[in-house]
User: What shape does this take?
Amino acid sequence: MSTLSTALRTAIDGRWAHVREEARSELEPTRFAPPTEELTLEEYRARVAQQLRELATTGHPARGLSKDVGGEGDFGASVTAFEMLGHADLSLLVKAGVHWGLFGGAVANLGTQRHHTAYLPRILSAELPGCFAMTETGHGSDVQSLQTTATYDPETDEIVVNTPSVAARKDYIGGAARDGRLAAVFAQLVTEGESHGVHCVLVPIRDENGEPMPGVSIGDCGAKAGLRGVDNGRLSFDHVRVPRTNLLNRYGDIDAHGAYTAPIENPTRRFFTMLGTLVRGRISVAGGAGAATRTALTLAVTYAGHRRQFAAPGGEEVRLLDYRAHQRKLLPPLATSYALMFAQNELVSAMHDVQSSGGDPDPHAQRELEARAAGIKAVATAHASATIAVCREACGGAGYLAVNRLPALKADTDVFTTFEGDNTVLLQLVAKGLLTDYRDTFGNLDTLGVARFAARQFAGSVIERTAARGLVERLVAAAPGRDAQDAVLDRGWQCALFDEREQHLVDTLALRLRRAAEPGADAFAVFNDAQDHVIAAARAHVDRVVLEAFVAGVDACTDAAARAMLDRLCDLHALSTIEADRGWFLEHGRITPARSKQVTATVNGLCAQLRPHAQELVDAFGIPAEWLGTELVAPLE
Ligand SMILES: Cc1cc2nc3c(=O)[nH]c(=O)nc-3n(C[C@H](O)[C@H](O)[C@H](O)COP(=O)(O)OP(=O)(O)OC[C@H]3O[C@@H](n4cnc5c(N)ncnc54)[C@H](O)[C@@H]3O)c2cc1C
Assistant: This one.
């Protein structure tokens, strides 16, 4: 590997670089590589179940549990190791994520000492395979409306778990179809005839012989578009009785007299606090998506570097990557993948600090973390779907062969935009977070002036929170005037455009949504009418956060050559993002038509500049050769 690639790798490996290095060597790439031969559904599931048990012996999963419950309490290391697994088989990644991350995470975060002692050791060792049974056929994104009930019976001191209708059936549940023994079931908790909202109850679903427990019906979701090694299934409960103590009772308990108690009185706040503790799953999916995207880019860029098609007049056949159209396909997404890697590293670091602080985290930091996680997850998984599809096409027919991994990468990551929170719903969450913050600060915003002021203040207060904000403000202040010829390559100019777009979108959104508070207004209709605006505001916010993470990454890089390269990549990321939304910038008078054309010309120029370094840029990802073992990386003799 070149010196430049090594220096770039140091820059992007981040705070848990040692974990990435360890994964590269100790995860034994051949052991966890995707299958090289075609397997039946059952063979694939059995293979992944076995790999999960092997993964348990590596010690990686213990990092994700805090020390007081028998883990190592290195949460950042845990999520980083998980991300590295995203270069291997994505079925294994998801199987591991469901078992340790979702199921183990529910027991650890929603349960108390008695659950930790009883279950966590066997969850860590994978002896007790589990499921996270939240989604129902009728309700996926709207978790608050789940219909499964968990009713306390004081006669027997038990909780009765029931599926009242087909719509209340638990659906798509990882681990349900084949391996799961115990399920963390989300249900409406009812005591003394009163519902207390969604809580989580542990329900055994299979006995030691693998047979369904009495009253539990198990179905198989069967073949899926991808993730063939994951046994997704359906669960229905016919008045299944479990002891009262099976309620994961950190945020809501039933005492020995059958009375419900909760540390947080407001049911909605309690519900969102419970869900908030599970934020790591969302961050992990973003990381896995990033790794899969880098694998696809490494394959496609490497292939394009040696594959030749058509000869230039009187010359040799041309390598694909020397075509501008091909550079355009691969290099801007490559630059954005660098940007997202810096943003993910920042997010993981913030998560580690918030969750390591001991006791209950600061609510403000927690809320900020949840919003950041939702935004990065939505953008990173959308980027994965789009980029992997482009990489597949960029490899022509070869990209379509299963042996070359791209079809599986595409199929396996497709659903990342849906699970752990549908992206559209997540972006609305990001925007609602922005608006809630400002409503909390300024009350009901009863005059236009206050609304405008509040929106600006709010945007300002969010802007201050990213690591690079001070630096970005200095860059913006020093940016050349809007009409300066060389402005497009000025980082301050680029940052100012991202800032202004976010600020304008949030500002005008606040004004629009203010109507919802007017007497007689149909608040739902007002919000629904503005949904495209809501999503654009959230997207602009995340774009700025990602760009600033890149700016911070460039600033922190101490190797001159790597820094210069990152600088060019950051230009390409920023300008291709502006180019993609140039309609908005033109419509809102933020750039002139001439400037818009200059942005496009500069993106082309940057593609040409980066082309000779493309291989070094993907080598820097440090993906073990065993995980790239395809015909695409080997030039024809
Ligand atoms: C392979 C796979 C594995 C899974 N594993 C698990 C698991 O282990 N455990 C588990 O509990 N769940 C699991 N799920 C379920 C997953 O979390 C849900 O599919 C997801 O939450 C979306 O819910 P839904 O499918 O009901 O879609 P819906 O919520 O019905 O969404 C469908 C469409 O409607 C749109 N939409 C919904 N609401 C709105 C709105 N308010 N405004 C605008 N648009 C909206 C969405 O953007 C989306 O395009 C899995 C799913 C799959 C496919």
